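glycerol kinase
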Amino acid sequence: MSKDEVFVGSVDQGTTSTRYIIYNKAAKQIGSHQVEFTQICPQAGWVEHDPMEILESVRLCIAKATDKATADGYNVDGGLKAIGITNQRETTLVWSKKTGLPLYNAIVWMDARTTSVCRRLEKELSRGRTHFAETCGLPISTYFSAMKLLWLMENVPEVKKGIDSGDALFGTIDTWLIWNMTGGVEGGLHVTDVSNASRTMLMNLKTLDWDKPTLDALKIPAKILPKIVSNSEIIGDVGKGWPVAGIPIAGCLGDQHAAMVGQACRKGQAKSTYGTGAFILLNVGDTVVHSKHGLLSTLAFKLGPNAPANYALEGSIAIAGAAVQWLRDSLGIISSAAEIEELAGKVTSSGGVYFVPAFNGLFAPWWRDDARGVCIGITRFTNKSHIARATLESMCFQVKDVLDSMHKDAGAGGETKNDKGEFLLRVDGGATVNNLLMQIQADLLGTPVVRPADVETTALGAAYAAGLAVGVWTEKDIFETNAKEASTMFRPTMNAELSKKKHESWCKAISRTYDLADLCL
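Predicted structure tokens:
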């Protein structure tokens, strides 16, 4: 190892866990640490996180990963040049700038408590559910931060009082982390990045600033909102009391946008990240494309204050890997997530079983918050292997639904194909180590699926953004050199007619999930 070796750290704050990964200039991991944190579910449809626990999980991961890399002989303290942050998007919190304490738990992106707020606004606003879509690219939905903020303003007295007194600060998880890591009550920086801001419903996609007409319509005061910055620039130095004090935070992206950078997705290329949910994004270039088929228009990335913005079409799936966790934690069918591949592999089909994990409704392209989970086609023949396989298939069917819509919106000229005329889906996230899942995905899509050697591209993307800002990497390194890393390709093997019939059965299962939110408990 050379004495002048440089490193970039990446904080990856997800829905169920936090990790910190240290990369060298070759973009290889040289140290990491991960911890899970508590999922708080006060009642059906509600999901919360303790912001203080998240903060401590970040602190612990940075310290442990640094210790591991140092023990392996890397001079991280002397060579660390920057830190990037990537985070679960939309998750919303409000805190006191005087005390630094949250005024309520963070309301998680999949939380569905704001259904009544959404229905009220749809009735009050002239263009209903799509009233703000032209400016922010998003429909009115429980998914997005603005609805969660309205709920906090209307239902938590401490939040209302804090806003009235000028003491309250709003932010998504990136904002909370940056504010605390750059000083907190002692001058912490109140900022967010364009990708996270694009998921609040409050940012204008063209101006990349908070949209005043939207703020006025929702009665959200601009004074509680953070400053919006690009995805790759020096934001501020880590403050005292942190393991990496003095190191600049130089990159920040929402997790799915970070994965696009980690996958080096250029215009016309798409990636699907399989985590708690699944998120498919297609880079559409420097112009906003508004979907006519149930997708979201969003920002892809903006790699520098003066860099052009890249936009994307996105399909968000609420429950993907979380369905596997449900099999493990709630039903006890498996004892670890890794076991599902072997269990599902004991059968060659789901035996006519179709499982739609609409635990808190359905996101893209259906957008039905009245949907609830169903499992149909069960017979005396059905066993737990069929249930396991149906769970894996549910993830793949949902991705197919999104990609079908994406193909329609993008058109023939909006997607990049290889020299064989094939559209390649780039995949990443922890679940993609499951080879059976990837093969099922290729079979149901009828197109190849490409898995990189390092499937944790979310953390890598945040590292790239930070390293780009301080000169560790160039855009050529990211989009040309490192994009050529070895990968595994899964090609479809299923008969196209069988794949079509299975999807028709899946759509029948989808229709059975509607209008179930008010079932008697």
